[in-house]
Amino acid sequence: MEGYIKSTTENGIATITFFHPQSNSMPGQLLRELAEEITKAGNNTDAKVIVLQSEGDKAFCAGASFDELISIKDMETGKKFFSGFAMVINAMRQAPKFIIARVQGKAVGGGVGIACTADYTLAINAASVKLSELAVGIGPFVVGPPVERKIGLSAFTSLTINATEWQTAQWAKEKGMYMDVFATFQEMDAAIATLADKLSKSNPEAMQMLKKAFWRGTENWDTLLIERAEMSGKLVLSDFTINAINKFKTKS
After folding, report:
1. Rounded-to-5 percentages of helix, strand, coil across the chain
2. 3-state secondary structure 225-243
3. pLDDT per residue over 35-63, tens digit each?
4. According to DSSP H, which parts of 61-216 are helical?
5. Residue 119 counted as domain residue
6. 3-state secondary structure of 59
7. Is the confidence at residue 217, as pLDDT, over 70?
8. Can you state the angle between helices 144-151 and 221-235, rounded to 10 degrees?
9. CB–CB of 85/50 below 8 Å?
10. What CATH number is given to the structural domain containing 81?
11. Helix axes 144-151, 110-117, angle to 10 degrees
12. Does residue 252 surpass a pLDDT of 60?
């Protein structure tokens, strides 16, 4: 399988890295592996904080794998694929530790969902964002709850409807998706290292209680996001969506 998930734990900091050669787009198997690694890090007593990042210096995450999307031929397969992003979001939500996201490039679709689900997200100033799902005939159903929770209904609606336009990293910072943006990788990585080090020395019990408090009201997401995955799984079978994805693949 192309792509991989790597994880290390050092000095109380668990670092999870994902990679796929197609702009860090995520096939179903990688999504499941990523969810598993996040859960493992959450259960690892040696880890006090989690840093989530992707490989490379271009796209942070281009969302769903179009190659896999176009291969879906039945509802169950569609639901299973979109459930992958649901599993990642729920693993991040349920992890009893703060997750810092390092967004070193553009985020699309599911990538925006990951950036919004992290508890604290730092980005490079080139890390523009876009929810492109409607442009290919679907909709940001699975990633919608964490995006709306983080940036509010108005900004989420804007991203969803204006599905072909990029919004800048500065826009994402103003809406609360990014806590800060940086001019260089060095500055961003220094800020992440400083924050992760501080959290690694903070009270684990206090952080766990705070994490639970921050996510209060999302207890139904275990079922909600799977229901949303089913909606996307149905739409991906439509002629409209199949044609739209093929056109998009031809352009790219």
Report:
1. 55, 15, 30
2. HHHHHHHHHHHCCCHHHHH
3. 999 999 999 999 999 999 999 988 999 99
4. 66-71, 75-94, 110-117, 144-151, 153-161, 169-175, 185-200, 204-214
5. yes
6. coil
7. yes
8. 120
9. no
10. 3.90.226.10
11. 50
12. no
